[in-house]
Amino acid sequence: MPLTCEDRAVITELIAMHGHLCDAGELDRLDEVFTTDVVYDVTDFGQEALRGVAACAEAGRALGELNPVGHHVTNIVLDEQADGRVRARSKGIGVNADGTTASVTYEDVVVRVDRGWRISHRTVRARRVPLGG
């Protein structure tokens, strides 16, 4: 079934909601963004991939004051797959309490589940050098 304009809007909002929930400390609501068995790949930062929405929430709590004060997402591009999944790429900008910033690329797999669209796999890639390095 082809992606509708409504699907595209819902998926774009879903990707944006992650930052709102994290910045508000509403980590118990991450199931509104991710599947319960999500894989959240942060190996580019030297960490193990997180498995499950509860592990993502716990990692955020454990990071505590080191969390960014602002998660901003932009440049969302959606690519519908033949199997009904959607591959999404977006840019993330994190603003830290000391005013420093960092840039990442989010690579998401988005699936339709009984509660609507959810991210089932997210890879976070740090942007460290210009022009793709």
SS elements, strand count: 6
The fraction of residues assigned to DSSP E strands is 35-45%
Number of helices: 2
Q: What are the segments in which pLDDT stays under 50 over at least 5 consecutive residues?
A: none
Measured on Cα atoms, how large is the radius of gyration?
A: 14 Å
CATH architecture: Roll
User: Looking at the structure, what is the overall shape?
Assistant: globular
Classify the helix fraction into a percent range. 10-25%
Explain this structure to me?
- Keywords: Dioxygenase, Oxidoreductase.
- This is 3-phenylpropionate/cinnamic acid dioxygenase small subunit.
- Residues 5-123 form the SnoaL-like domain.
- It comes from Actinomadura namibiensis.
- One of its GO terms (molecular function) is dioxygenase activity.
- There is one protein chain.
- By secondary structure, the protein is α+β, with helices and mostly antiparallel strands.
- The protein has one domain: Nuclear Transport Factor 2, Chain: A (Roll), CATH 3.10.450.
- It has two helices and six strands; from the N terminus they run αββαββββ.
- It has helices spanning 5-23, 53-63; strands at 34-41, 50-51, 70-80, 86-95, 101-113, 116-126.
- It has a six-stranded mixed β-sheet, covered by helices on one side.
- The chain is globular, with a radius of gyration of 14 Å.
- It starts with a helix and ends in a 7-residue tail after the last strand.
- 17% of the residues are buried.
